[in-house]
Amino acid sequence: MKRLAYIFPFLLLFTSCENFLEVDPQLQVDESKAITNASSATTALNGLYNRLSANSYYGSNFPALSYLSGGDVQWSGSQSAPQEVVLHRLTADNGYVGSAWTAIYQTILSANYIIQAVPQVVDPLFTETQRNEVLGQAYFIRSLAYFDLARGWGGVPIILTPTRESSENANVEKSTLAETYAQVLKDLELAESLLPETTNRQRATRKTVWALRSRYHLYRSEWEQAESYATKVINDKANYSLLKPYAAFFASNAVGTSESVFELSYTISATNNHSNWWLPPALGGRREWSPTPQLVTLLTSAETGGGRKELLGQTAAPGNLWYGKLYYRSPTGTDPAYLIRTAELYLIRAEARAQQNNLGAALSDLNAVRDRAGLAALITTDKTAILNALAQERRLEFAFEADRWFDLVRTGKAGEVLGITNPNKYLFPIPTAEIVANNAIIQNNDY
Amino acid sequence: MKFNTRSPYSVRFLCALLLALSTPVLLKSQDNPKPLINSTLEGTILDAKTREPLIGVSIQLKGTTHSSYTDSKGRFQFITGQKFPYNIIVSYIGYEKREITANGSPIEVLLKEDIKTLNEVVVVGYGTQSKRSVIGAVSTIKTSEIANQPSASFDQQIQGRAAGVQVGSNTGVPGDGLFFRIRGTTSINASSDPLYIIDGVFINNQSLQKITTQGQANNPLADINPADIESISILKDAEATAIYGARAANGVVLITTKRGTYNSRPKISLNTYQGASWAPELWDLLTGPEHATIINETWTNDGKPFATRPFRPVSEGGRGLPEEQQTYDRLNDVFRTGRLQNYDLSVSGGNDKTRYYIGGGYASQDATLKTNDYSRASFKINLDQTINSFLKVGTSNTLARSQRANARVGDGPQGGILQAGLHTPTYLPKFNADGTYAKWAGFDNLDVLIDNTDMQSVSSRYMGNIYGEAEIAKGLKLRSSWSLDYNNYDEFEYWNSLTNRGSANKGLAASSISQNLIWSSEQTLTYRNTFNENHTIGVLLGNSIQGNTARQTFAQGTNFPSDDLKQIASAATTTSSSNLAENKLSSFFSRIDYNYAGKYFLEASLRADGSSRFGADKKWGYFPSAGLSWRVKEESFLLNSQTISDLKIRASIGLTGNQNGIDNYAALGLWQGGYNYLDNPGSIPVQLANANLGWESTRQTNLGIDLGLFKDRLGIEFNVYHKYTEDLLLNDPLAPSTGFSSITKNTGEISNKGIELSINSTNIAAEHFKWQTNLNLGRNVNKIEKLPTPIDASYNTIRMIEGYPLYSFFVYKQLYVDPQTGDAVYEDLNQDGQLTVADKQVIGNASPKLFGGLNNAFSFKGIDLSVFFNFSYGNKIYNNNRFFLESGGTRDDRRAINKNQLNRWQKPGDITDVPRLTTQGTNYTLSPSSRFVEDGSFLRLSIVNLGYTLPKDLSRKVKASTIRVYVTGTNLALWTKYSGPDPEINVTSNPLVQGYDLGTPPVPRTVQLGLNVTL
């Protein structure tokens, strides 16, 4: 039985070492190591901006929901989801609505993580000022996210702590619209107190907070505050101005011009696909949508469009197809997302002033924007005329940004302009994914 | 039970130790005393019928282990210490065993061919069994049945050959992935593919492809040359599979490759065929004038002025009148007749201690869709060496290189060669007036793609193992085996400035190199012995450890100086990334089997598996099984029955596990980098932790009957099974408001119930004419028993819902088209007067109600003919391709229109299911609609093979032992109601999406001429 001796080494293999089964990921880190010091907090903050600028959010999808719903951009492609948006035939499983909702809440998740973790970080090198800057930006982005939810979907679930386990933040019901807006304001106020009064067009500072607050108060019809916050930014003339000509803020690969109060910039290590949807095949896109003939007429007219005709391009004969070219950086995918521009603050203030019957000042703000577009000044003393002119101005000024639809809904004109008879359709549907997995949520009416 | 002990040694150290300690075994010299010679027996062994010498026949001295084999002339010599007379046992695979008393030398022994299939040897987990003693449900496929089909991979050849095994092509492109299920789908997010083992090597069947071909993926099993395969065993029930415990829930496919025969002269075998393939049918599209008519009708139906209709005279600013439109046929530009060729050459043989098989093969196939082709060069060497009376070593090796020219065949316009050919409206010209390439509707110009598509991939693969086997004591064997499956998948694509992708990027190139390594080490100890004549007992104990490392490097370059410079080194802008992921598995297994007098069989096994993928306390899973069978035929009341030649009843129950297909780190809460902003590194939360994540397990019971009638001329095998999967490894949806879309957890249950029937019949077995029929049928009923939250697969068309089967289509139900208005009327399920997602419902699913195959084989003298049908009944298809092509004019100049659109409602009283043309309302914008759910049942004349074997004396003249010429046709006829060219189609390699047609190249028809020569 000498042979049995030879089994010995084999028998050793019949054992297994416990650590043999321990395998660590190479591409990710455990959640516990995510935010532990100044450097990782900054990394998480960069991640938060990345979420905000994701394709499904400001990268293309969220602005697209607005301009596709706004009646001036038509569907010229083949996908069903944008077709439904254009036709106002949204269903709860529309992919565009679903991915925007998901992306916004992913942004909120990252913000919640930072807001919860950063105050607890023990790192002597992480100064109070740095902490406040990180926190302030997280509060700002969270307020923007809830603002976008409020104007798109109405009252939504308010989630203020990070989901660390699947049982957390499950089955949260919708808050009212007022509660949702109240949360926006609360975060804005915190951000305002935490952030320094510096100028940065690609990250939030106290000035960025002012600009968003101005828009917030406009949406809440709080004219006085809308005006005062707009003024705070407009008065910083050294840093914020209406660039001339109109195309100066985007043409020739411009980035972070003084027109921008807040824009998200993209680099080769983080790109977006916005131009792909707009550009014709010859320029590397698929022209899934394009400006309507009506918008083309308005933008190309010297009376209404002026310099804003630069937003349009036309393909070669025989096609002669119009396309939008605000987003055109096709080889690189680095078109910025324009969130708040100086022009908007002028138009917000004009509207707030008009609503407060300060018509002369309103008109001068409006004409500042018209002048920049190369249009003649408007002369009128009629409040309604000014308000109508403002609506028209916004329509053309922000034709391909996240504005038109929300503006029509805010001013109650969506029905009149777009022929939507059911006011319940002014809100997007809560996506199916939320409905099936959240037992407490109730679908928006008529979806 | 806990096998793992905390050991101070690392596994690597153990390996080294093992090798060191094993060395003396290898060096051990023969220390047996010189044998005493008392007699020398010489003899010849011949086929009883043909009197041909039989090579490699085993001759064993009864009651001893002493044996010998016949040489190439059928002769053997036996030198023994025993004196005449004594008994020898003569056995040879495929022949009846004989026991003969040798009274002197020389002798001549005639062996009769064994027509009983019952003596077949069946390969099972960690061993072989005679078919008689198999308890589990095992389908064995002889490669002779499926040889010479022009399929790139053996798994495709199995289609329709084994009951309960469902195989479906996703596309007609050779070497592409397919759908393979043994007894239904058991999982949602973990893999439902079986475990593939080739000669003991666990092999990868997941595509490593990273560069998109739009929803399609290569099939890694195509790296294996089917000509090298000897047999395929498909283990279906828990009794058969539980020995592979953790990975066996979806069945196991065991592949045995060819090995040499001891004591035989070199056998050289050459096989070649040449053939052609083409698409038997393509899509029916509208002509230019018809397309224009439809668009104008949509325009006026929308209430827009006739004067401004799109197709009005050019002088009025229109596109020209409908009748002025040209028709440009692109489909016939993009499809072609492809060439098939195949060469296999092998040498095998052996002496008394060594046997070998060396095989080389080359196959190449053009897809019917242009720019796609596939070729494989492979090399195989199998070797077994007996070192001494108790020690044997051996090795199996496969080296292969599969080369593919790819194209974008699926969804998405950019670079999509099929879509450019199929979906570009037919009235639009191929060239602009100035002679430049015209591009339409987001599609590339088809001619540009045909001439410039440059997507290549090369799969380099090594699969092999070495083993050592020692017989420590009588009946007690120790085997150690070390295996590797290494796959390097190298992809490259270049889009020059003529293509859309290239023009936007000034040239775009991408290179991806994926490396996948699976290594495993297995030690088994087996014991088998028979006591007191009637009690046979077998024991197996084993341990295996396995690791899998996947590495990937990706680089992309844009902005090239010219179209002549294609390598990324020339690009002005480059990006790159790399990735690495790992998992490990450690297992212990045991099996005990017992049979009494070949009458009662009992078997039980237990396996424990530990996986690195699971939470700390859940790593280990335990998988037991038990089975028994009763060979009724051996009972006295049947022993003498003339009608019933065999009857066996089998029953088994067992538990198997699954952990394949989930992420390696699914149990951890993770943050991931790479989410940058302004070129500063950023990180985000990507996954929630679940420390309780553990095994998905499937309980399976199986009842089976094997019946042989009329001397086994008619063989019937019937199985009924019930699989119940619990603790599904599910990406359980979370409300997106949590910031996560899902968490991987053990929740949900799925059942699969089914029956399988195989009938093998020798209808005629005359002297010169033989007719055999094989029929197999499978029915599987799948049901999601528990699912907390419904899950949508991609495209919002397939939804998994508790109480329904997987692959159910969840759509709006179109009731009819109102004959008065022409509008589609949909069912308002909740009767709230509106059409919302609440009105979607399940209409059919993609799984067949019944599927199977029927083969008839005839032979008349040297002529052989086989005719094989396969079918699928009751499966539905969502024809999304039709949704695009039949969109009522809403897609105007962006998509071609199909012929069925002409059946639209036009005037009150029209009865049709194609609604009035309009861009308004819900006629053509409500999606998905039951209008596009179609019956995908089919019957296919899958293979016809006609061969002629030259008479022996003729082939001997050229010194060949056999020469056979044959002609094979595949997919020669198809009967189906499906409106697309072929119902065997699927958009994607996403396992949750089945029966979703977005347009892929149909299954080709092939005809080939071949030659087999054996020397």
UniProtKB/TrEMBL annotation, chain A:
Residues 20-217 form the SusD-like N-terminal domain. Pfam families: SusD-like_3, SusD_RagB. It is found in: Cell outer membrane. Residues 332-411 form the RagB/SusD domain. InterPro entries: SusD-like_N, SusD_RagB_dom, TPR-like_helical_dom_sf. Transmembrane segments: none annotated. Keywords: Cell outer membrane, Membrane, Signal. GO terms for cellular component: cell outer membrane. Belongs to the SusD family. This is RagB/SusD domain-containing protein.
UniProtKB/TrEMBL annotation, chain B:
Residues 1-27 form the signal peptide. Transmembrane segments: none annotated. It is found in: Cell outer membrane. SUPFAM superfamilies: Carboxypeptidase regulatory domain-like (SSF49464), Porins (SSF56935). Pfam families: CarbopepD_reg_2, Plug, TonB_dep_Rec_b-barrel. Coiled coil: none annotated. It is a multi-pass membrane protein. Residues 131-252 form the TonB-dependent receptor plug domain. GO terms for cellular component: cell outer membrane. Keywords: Cell outer membrane, Membrane, Signal, TonB box, Transmembrane, Transmembrane beta strand, Transport. The keyword Plastid does not apply. Residues 432-781 form the TonB-dependent receptor-like beta-barrel domain. The keyword Transmembrane applies. Belongs to the TonB-dependent receptor family. Its main location: membrane. This is TonB-linked SusC/RagA family outer membrane protein.
